[in-house]
Amino acid sequence: MDERTEAGAAIRVEVDDSGLATLTLSQPERGNPIDGDFCREFKQAFLRLWDTEGLRAVLLRAEGKNFSLGGDVKQFYGQRENLAPLVRQWTSDLHMGLSRAWTLPVPIIAQVHGYAMGGSCALVAGCDVVVAARSAKFGSAFSQLGFSCDSGSSPTLTFRMGPARARRFVLLAEMLSADEALSAGLADRVADDDALESTALALARQLAAGPTVAYGEVKRLFAQAGMMQLQAQLEDEAMTLARVSASHDAREGVAAFAERRKPKFTGR
After folding, report:
1. Long-range CB contacts (within 8 A, 24+) of 16-19
2. Radius of gyration of the chain from its Cα atoms, rounded to whole angstroms
3. Cα 236 to the chain's mean position, in Å?
4. What is the model's pLDDT at position 1?
5. Rounded CA gap, 136 and 265, in Å?
6. pLDDT, tens only, 231-240
7. Where does 2-194+212-259 sit in CATH, by number?
8. How many other C-beta atoms can be found within 10 angstroms of the C-beta atom of residue 34?
9. If DSSP codes are grouped into helix, strand and coil, which group holds residue 28?
10. Which residue has the higher pLDDT, 178 or 102?
11. Are 100 and 43 within 8 A, CB to CB?
């Protein structure tokens, strides 16, 4: 059924003859981390999807036990004394990819299982419809690392959850169950674990068979109404995280996570 398949180190993209693209996070043994390869391939994938003739919908899914554990803390740990340049490098690719994804004029459906943490939670929040497995967990661990949020967390979580609820989610590094995410607006549907794949795929096929032009305009209108400052906010997030990553607390947070101990934050 698939007509076109492209695979990189971190992401595989398949487009079938109905115009449904399936974008799969494909590093399950590593927890599908957000790292340099992921950021680059994510940008490239959505640049290609913009030019894919006959595209009708996108299904975002992942292989393995978890959707994604978020940023690659192992790489952060190895470069914790020089994180700011790494953050600027990764976010330059990721945020361009996110911008292209959120403005893609077809519906994007996220299929979430296991843990969706940090930046991957923001990635999910930016999708048009989120289908979660009943056992899925949504978490924001930025503050536990001494980091500010990125990956579009501030606009997408606010758009879905409202400013007060989104702020609490990030500040307190909360972990939400699928039902809690549904109540908060972070998820749109919850399916039993063994029905997740079929539920998400059926919804993706339903949208792929719908009025694509109308869907694109609906997305554009809501983006204008709810995220007018998206581009500026993405850049602000990237530069803020680069500054924060150079702080003592950020270095301590990364080290504590990697060394499996409680961090000792000093406010510097």
Report:
1. 18/56, 18/205, 18/208, 18/209, 19/54, 19/55, 19/56, 19/57, 19/208, 19/212
2. 18
3. 17
4. 41
5. 30
6. 667 667 667 7
7. 3.90.226.10
8. 26
9. helix
10. 178
11. yes
Kindly report the number of other CB atoms within 10 A of residue 37's CB atom. Answer: 17
Quick one: pLDDT at residue 260?
A: 77
| Helices 163-171, 153-161: inter-axial angle, 10-degree rounding | 130
Strands of the sheet containing 137-139, edge to edge, are 115-117, 137-139, 175-177
Q: What's at 101, amino acid-wise?
A: A
Give 214's contacts (C-beta < 8 A, 6+ positions apart): none
pLDDT averaged over the chain? 87
User: pLDDT tens-digit profile of 165-213?
Assistant: 999 999 999 999 999 999 999 999 999 999 999 999 999 999 999 999 9
Q: Is the pLDDT of residue 225 over 70?
A: no
CA dist., res. 228 & res. 245, Å (int): 27
Q: What is the pTM of this model?
A: 0.84
Contact at 8 Å (CB) between 110 and 129?
yes
